């Protein structure tokens, strides 16, 4: 697996990832505001993707370009001392294989400077997607602590801020 800064040609891959989690987060693929948010992160170089580089083949010729088959994607924002995970999704086929952890580690290395904090809004404890997605456990394992409730998601489900202090 390789983590790299996302580019415009990764946009279809972000839509593919979004289609895999709409049952938990609500509609994204057909929502212009989601498209705008992804493109803004791409332009600002504040988006990362996890890709499978595939087998290396010797010989001349161009390597295949990035396509929609991403293992994961992350949209990030940094306004020190606050840093924000705006969106993090791992593909169905890659969940539980360290992709989310690798995306977070790379984002932290690139963009987080302490002292400060990293914040993410994820499912509230009573949301049906909280257990099914594994999001709350994922962030807790990375050292995030549950904090205050957040506004409900577009599908009407509860949300909660998770926060990690950075020294």
Question: Any overview of this molecule?
Answer:
With 167 residues, the chain is of the alpha+beta class. A 7-stranded mixed beta sheet has the order 1-2-3-4-5-7-6, with helices on both faces. The radius of gyration is 16 Å and the shape is globular. The model is unreliable at 56-67 (pLDDT under 50). The chain has helices at residues 11-19, 22-25, 32-43, 99-111, 128-133, 135-141, and strands spanning 2-5, 47-51, 72-79, 82-90, 116-123, 145-150, 159-166. The protein starts with a strand and ends with a strand. The protein has 6 helices and 7 strands; from the N terminus they run βαααβββαβααββ.
Key phrases:
single chain; 167 residues; alpha+beta; 7-stranded mixed β-sheet; 6 helices; 7 strands; globular
Instruction: State the assembly state of the protein chains.
Output: single chain
* Structural class category: alpha+beta
Average pLDDT score: 90
Element-by-element helix/strand order: EHHHEEEHEHHEE
Largest sheet: 7 strands, mixed
Number of helices: 6
β-sheet strand percentage: 25-35%
Low-confidence stretches: 56-67
Percent of residues in helical segments?
25-40%
Instruction: Kindly report how far apart the N and C termini lie.
Output: 29 Å
Number of strands: 7
* CA-based gyration radius: 16 Å
In the sheet with the most strands, the strands line up as: 1-2-3-4-5-7-6
Give the overall shape, derived from the CA principal axes: globular
